[in-house]
Amino acid sequence: MSKLRVGVIGATGKGNYGHGLDTAFSGVDRAEIVAVADSNAAGLKRAGGKLRVDRLYADYRKMLDTEKLDIVCIGPRWITDRVEMVERTADAGCHIYCEKPMTPNLESADKIAATVRRNKIKFQMAHQWRAAPPIRKAFENIAAGEYGKLLRISIRPKDDHRGGGEELLVHGTHFFDLMFTMAGLPRWASGHIQVGNRDAKKSDRTEGTEPTGPIAGDSISAVFGFDHGVRGYFESTAGIALRNKERPFDHLYGVFVECERALLRFRQPGDVFIHPAPAVLPDLENLTWKKLWIEDWHFTPEHKPRTDLRRTWIHYGNRFMANNLIDAIENDAKPLSSIDHAVAITEVVQGVYASHFSEGRRMPIPLKSRRHPLL
Q1: How far apart, in whole angstroms, are the C-alpha atoms of residue 361 and residue 354?
Q2: Verdict on whether the full-model pTM lies above 0.85
Q3: Is residue 204's pLDDT more than 80?
């Protein structure tokens, strides 16, 4: 079987190539990167050298029209041109590996979903967290009922200067993807947003550190409802995880998973810790956290601890997701982080705002109004 032809879309200075999406298919046996597009001349030249390709395009549309591509990596973190990039790529018949977040609002998400489904292409979001072997093993164990019934899933993003509205969109996307994998798609969302010590108003609308579409709030609390009584939670407050003498940490990044017989904690770079009770019980010293060890992930072939995981886990995740996308293409299956997850993530993000401006009322998912509540 001939290798699938891969093209890369980047935007130097405008979101660049995301979190390593330019090299996502490097070293993937069933694919070959053959072309790259970037409107920045210097960035295009660097990308070409890095990827060892000589088919270089200043306009991604020209690349799509000229090259017979099977897959396109849409790399820019900025989402200002996301809809057009996806529509042009899907209309060219190319499958897509897309940087997160997908879109700033549901109107854009609906356009993307429509063009993906109309063209019958496979769409995969770059959610590298879910690729880590410990997290995949935890998914397997939870689904098998090893820890008893799944009860609650709690998300905590980095809580750096982007805490609140920006974290809900930018880092929430990874964690909502994990949440939906464990609990299924959400049925409703409820949220409360603050700016300082007061409730957020629509006039607090702003943009993030990069173009994200409308956001608001420096502190957010949200609840999500799933089938079988499972609840999801998102908590974020800006500026409480800044490294200094009093706070020797720079992020709170992670997920708590509460089951009937155990508590699981997901931490970067994809590690899983397990506590043998549904809550932390500090007075019971015999109950201790244990790490979920995966032999060929945590150790070298000589059984020495790997020291490069924090540097390499994103590339590993990209390659895993790239291979999964190819599997989906070959078997006409749904990718792990599909368009369904991407739209549902946008639903809950927008649902938090819709709920806040409706005095915390539960907002059924899918949302009836597709217009962003901050607009």
Answers
A1: 9
A2: yes
A3: yes
